[in-house]
Write a structure and sequence with these properties.
heterodimer, A: alpha+beta, eight-stranded antiparallel beta sheet, B: mainly alpha, flat
Chain lengths: 380, 60
């Protein structure tokens, strides 16, 4: 009786493993194949988009953020500033402008300025758009939010497939030692062994990359919720009379004040009043930490854009932190080149697992009778 | 420990160690640079080493 129960339990797990895998395999194969070049996108961008640009005064004093902002507005007369961001590896300030604070992305203009001279920096050479195409395919298959959420669902199936795979690994391996590769038996036995070995040694990595990928597919709703909660929080605190600033106070002073309020953090991004990342009243100044862990954790500081007064610092809520930490754990870009190479090898292993899984399913369908039935779990 | 339990331990001992080493590797480079990067390469190298070992030693 118990033996029958266990056999039926095993059959149920095999059923889960088979169907979660079959439904998601094509999409997971696409994700693994497009993910491979994306692991090295920094290196590929650097190799193809060779920039000969150098600052006017290397190591020289930096202009104030107010001067850069003035240059940017001279460059786009009649427009208002929307965002300001800062290159990591060179003294370059990027300013996004638009006709109105609410201008849609398609009507925004992006320009880069030398932080040492205020001169325009030529835009990055487009790399033919190949990497952009690959990234878009990997992120949402050109389908926007529904595409992202769909790929997220495939990630959930992947996790179910890994868990059920661990369960059914036990009866298959009951009579074998770890790592057995019966390469001289039938192709089906050989590929079953490869599938089992690669599958079981990559469990931790596949689960982490898969589940952080799922969290990344929720980026849009997570950021929307964060914005909604932070804004509701702010408007609750403010006087009812808070209005758009009549006159902008110094951006440079606002940034210095924000940096003083968040010691040990690095300036990342400024959102101007009225835009989608701030309130109607504030400069939202985003700073990040210094270690590989905290560099993805962002603290926004709000400075009143008219009076220049400090108006609050908000740590990210837990769900936004989870999203931030999911990015490096998904991309594998936080441990220099050797980590990226390991990421690529593990990705290749995942491709072999997926392909051999499909092969095993097809081979079983063709022969009908299983060559190697799993040893009964309850043989005692 | 009955037969069933001991066979489960035997089946999953090596995979569990590899999963633990991989997890250490995944976290190490996240919390620091330098030596911790090196530790992350060792940890995440464990599954690769296991496959290479099986490919050379366990072909039957």
């Amino acid at each position: 009786m118990t033996m029958m129960m266990r056999q039926s339990t095993l059959r149920a797990w095999l059923f889960v493993h088979k169907w979660t895998s079959l439904i998601s395999t094509l999409f997971l194969l696409m994700l693994c194949v497009t993910g491979l070049p994306l692991i090295f996108h920094d290196e590929i961008d650097a190799a193809f988009g060779e920039q000969q640009w150098a600052p006017a005064n290397p190591g020289g004093p930096l202009l104030s953020y107010d001067d850069i902002l003035a240059r940017a507005l001279e460059n786009r007369p009649g427009e208002v500033p929307l965002f300001m961001s800062f290159d990591i590896d060179r003294p370059v300030v990027n300013v996004t402008t638009g006709l109105r604070p609410s201008s849609p992305e398609s009507e925004m203009h992006f320009a880069s300025f030398d932080h040492t001279s205020g001169a325009l920096v030529p835009p990055h050479e487009p790399d033919g758009g190949v990497m952009h195409f690959i990234l878009q395919l990997h992120t949402d298959m050109f389908l926007g939010l529904p595409g992202m959420l769909f790929l997220g669902a495939m990630g959930v199936l992947l996790a179910a497939s890994v868990v059920s795979g661990i369960v059914v690994y036990a009866p298959f391996m009951r009579r074998h030692d770890f790592g057995v590769l019966r390469v001289n038996r039938s192709p089906r036995v050989k590929w079953l062994d490869y599938h089992n070995l690669l599958g079981v040694v990559t469990v931790a990595w596949v689960l982490v990359v898969g589940l952080t990928g799922v969290i990344n597919t929720l980026a849009t709703p997570i950021l929307d919720l964060w914005k909604y909660e932070a804004l509701r929080d702010l408007t609750a605190q403010q006087d009812a009379g808070a209005t758009a600033p009549q006159q902008m106070s110094s951006l440079h002073d606002a940034i210095l004040r924000a940096e003083a309020a968040a010691p040990g953090m690095t300036l990342q991004f400024v959102a101007f009043p009225g835009g989608s990342f701030s309130t109607d009243r504030h400069f939202a100044i985003f700073l990040h930490g210094e270690t590989p862990l905290t560099t993805h954790l962002i603290t926004p500081v709000l400075i009143d854009a008219e009076t220049g007064a400090f108006d609050g610092l908000r740590d990210m809520p837990w769900y936004a932190k989870a999203l931030s930490l999911s990015k490096p754990l998904h991309f594998g870009d936080y441990g220099r080149l050797p980590l990226k190479i390991l990421w690529a090898l593990l990705d290749l292993a995942a491709i072999v697992i997926l392909a051999s899984g499909v092969y095993l399913w097809l081979a079983k369908a063709r022969t009908l009778a299983p060559i190697e039935a799993p040893a009964p779990m309850a043989a005692e | 420990m009955n037969d069933r339990e001991s066979s489960l331990v035997k089946t999953f001992a090596v995979p569990a160690v590899i999963a633990a080493l991989s997890s250490v590797g995944l976290v190490a480079a996240l919390i620091g640079d330098g030596a911790l990067d090196f530790l992350s390469w060792l940890g995440l190298g464990a599954p690769i080493v296991a496959v290479l070992w099986a490919l050379t030693q366990r072909r039957a």
